[in-house]
Amino acid sequence: MKFLAFFLLAVFAGCASWHWEKRGASADDYEADEKFCKSQVYSGTDGAVTEALVRRMHACLEAKGWRKVDKEK
Question: Which residue range is the domain that position 34 belongs to?
């Protein structure tokens, strides 16, 4: 069930018209912060991804200095 939830999250993220950005940060920095936030937000859940959990995930990344930036067209 967790695999399905993360798969769906990845699919929906691929459809987004924005991405996460942090001045001076690398892709490895993002992966580390994303992993940390996922462990904080999704720990103890049954694998279901809800809108509330996604908002908490975004808030965690924002607290670490990341911001949503529109993709260039």
Answer: 2-70
